[in-house]
Amino acid sequence: MPFSNTHNAMKLKFSANAEFPDLSKHNNHMAKILTPAMYDHLRSKQTPSGFTLDDVIQTGVDNPGHPFIMTVGCVAGDEETYEVFKELLDPVIQDRHGGYKPSDKHKTDLNPANLKGGDDLDPNYVLSSRVRTGRSIRGFCLPPHCSRGERRAIEKLSVEALDALDGDLKGKYYALKNMTDAEQQQLIDDHFLFDKPVSPLLLAAGMARDWPDARGIWHNDNKTFLVWVNEEDHLRVISMQKGGNMREVFTRFCTGLTKIESLFKAKGHPFMWNEHLGYVLTCPSNLGTGLRGGVHVKLPNLSKHAKFDEVLKKLRLQKRGTGGVDTAAVGGVFDISNADRLGFSEVELVQMVVDGVKLLVDMEKQLEKGGSIDGLMPAQK
Amino acid sequence: MASHFARILSTKRHVGILSLVGAGSLTAGIFLSRDQHVNAGSQVRRLYPASAEYPDLRKHNNCMASHLTPGIYAKLCDKATPNGFTLDNAIQTGVDNPGHPFIKTVGMVAGDEESYEVFADLFDPVIKERHNGYDPRANTHPTDLESSKVRSGMFDERYVLSSRVRTGRSIRGLSLPPACTRAERREVERVVVDALAGLGGDLSGHYYSLTQMTEKEQQQLIDDHFLFDKPVSPLLTCAGMARDWPDARGIWHNNEKTFLIWINEEDHTRVISMEKGGNMKRVFERFCRGLKEVERLITEKGWEFMWNERLGYILTCPSNLGTGLRAGVHIKLPNLSKDPRFPKILENLRLQKRGTGGVDTAAVGSTFDISNLDRLGQSEVQLVQTVIDGVNYLIECEKKLEKGQDIRVPPPLNQLK
């Protein structure tokens, strides 16, 4: 949690070895990279807003490992974290993002016209399509570190920007703490409402402090474009609809994001972005595009096939339960999405999802008929 | 006892003037040290005015929320203790936990001994509310660990299943669980384990570190009901007490399994004396003897417990100040618990009921955990006597109801006011 600046200074009276965390039973990216020597170099530093090394790594120290996925184990408290603690975060980013080097450049492409196809995923299998990303507002601290005053300022600014949206994007903001019972029930029924985080990954990073102060949900009247304010990032932007028309989902996503970005810029608060890391978000796993494009898809046969995981790996896709990142699949319905975030553009990632899911559905149909999928095995993307 | 502590100069850390002040100059000493703490190292990063940072407490029901006015917040929000603990740190748990269904929670914690001084403008009224009007600026707290003073204390074992006394102790000079660094926490472990290794006779025992225990040891500790888990209560996790789990946490117990110490759970140490059955007198005797021995052993090495005349033993949660003592029994009260006068009887006897799973649980069946309500303003001997007298009264009520006789609500005990 955010201690005052003198707390870190006080720690320096103890040796680095006395303070170095016990990571002997840990399995996350931070634990694999942080050495006592690195800890020694970095522990006297802090970002201009006072975020320290221990703040960065606390979630990784408190959460030794996750059964379904190798977690990152560190978070940023502000934009400068990625600079001040480069020595730790560059190798973490490299490990997490398929070898992405400190000298690499990330390309941003939010032009939906560049996407090929994507409007015809079979709705008998693909139940819903969704694209999400996050955005951070430059000049403010991130959820692990922000004060109540900052979080409220972020909310105020966001609501002002979102209120300016019009056409099919016109919508309304529901603050978590002011919601009526009826509004709350509607948002639950629409599967829009986010809860206070229960995942220890988020709680240990201090992201649930002061809940539900300055948290809320904005969505358009059509319920196809949704923005979460002050959950795990400043903003999470989501475009979604039932069925398999990922193209439409992505088009709305790009249009909406671009509009929102210009509204924030006009207010003197552009999004955090740079050439190397792309969009800057709280968790290093979401750098670059911050984009997770995916579907809920029925794959009862394919998911039991011995080669399912291999296929996903080749397609650069990942599976989750339909309850989200910390859940297991129920029945044969999976959440299938892109595994990458950084080093590929938005268009490239959604293209992988569209092409990949198409293939998965073809494989499922093949297995239904009692056929083999050997002839359909893809090359490594 | 105050002068005993005053004599020992702690060389380990910056302790401030607090520990050197004798009774005569108490008032002047407090003001002097408060200023010193207030100016020491207070660099709280502040971009927004206090009014923009003031928490939304409209739906809250805890002691902190009842007393934290915007004025007090504005006065204290820029201050930090010498260790760097801030007001926001102290109140975070109360902001994050609006209210508890079974008990009005305190809603704030101390990060170190100095917290109680630097943030006195908020701690004092909270302490007053929680501890029946006890005023840290005016009252003094009596400490009395002479167990021979306790009368009777052997309960009817047809009703009382087990007896237990617990308290906490903090090591002066090291930050408390909400604020401690890993190195500090490890130092607490080292100091305490070192001292416990010096215990002999019926107190001789063994330390089980949570990071190193074998599966077999773990299972044994679970079977003995000794093992404590990583806290799940949001009251504790929001205060940062579970950080770095299970580093430097452990359990020490004597070979007879009647004297147990938890290290670095919710306090530096929790000291527990317990046994099956109703011999509360023996439980308390062992409690006092064990505590005094441990104190002697750490003093030999130049350490001491956090204690002062105003607040008694200093612990993380203001609710545990004073004696930090909870003496209680697991007791079967099938008839009395169904009587509508039960809550009033408990209240007048200055007792509280809990489920047998601990503070956050409800009772299962008709077996209750009954213990003293009060912690501060009365001594250990007084509180244990209260429990003994009270539990004996409850047993008499239960027996009467069994025979179809009526019971009386006793008059309220004199409280500290």
3D structure, described in words:
The complex is a heterodimer of chains A (381) and B (417). Chain A is α+β, with helices and mostly antiparallel strands and 381 residues long. Chain A has 13 helices and 10 strands. Chain A has helices at residues 5-11, 16-19, 29-33, 36-42, 53-62, 81-84, 86-96, 148-163, 181-189, 200-203, 246-266, 308-315, 346-368; strands at residues 126-135, 171-175, 216-220, 225-229, 235-242, 273-274, 278-279, 292-298, 317-320, 333-338. In chain A, the strands form 2 sheets. An 8-stranded antiparallel β-sheet of chain A has the order 2-3-4-5-1-8-10-9. In chain A, strands 6-7 form a two-stranded antiparallel ribbon. In chain A, strand 6 (273-274) and strand 7 (278-279) form a beta hairpin. Chain A is globular and about 70 Å long. The mean pLDDT of chain A is 94. Chain B is built from 14 helices and 10 strands. Chain B has helices at 2-7, 26-39, 50-53, 63-67, 70-76, 87-96, 115-118, 120-130, 182-196, 215-223, 234-237, 280-300, 342-348, 380-402; strands at 160-169, 205-209, 250-254, 259-263, 269-276, 307-308, 312-313, 326-332, 351-354, 367-372. The model of chain B is unreliable at 1-42 (pLDDT under 50). In chain B, the strands form 2 sheets. An 8-stranded antiparallel β-sheet of chain B has the order 2-3-4-5-1-8-10-9. A two-stranded antiparallel ribbon of chain B has the order 6-7. Chains A and B meet through helix 1, helix 5 and helix 8 of A and helix 6 and helix 9 of B. Chain B: GO terms for molecular function: ATP binding; creatine kinase activity.
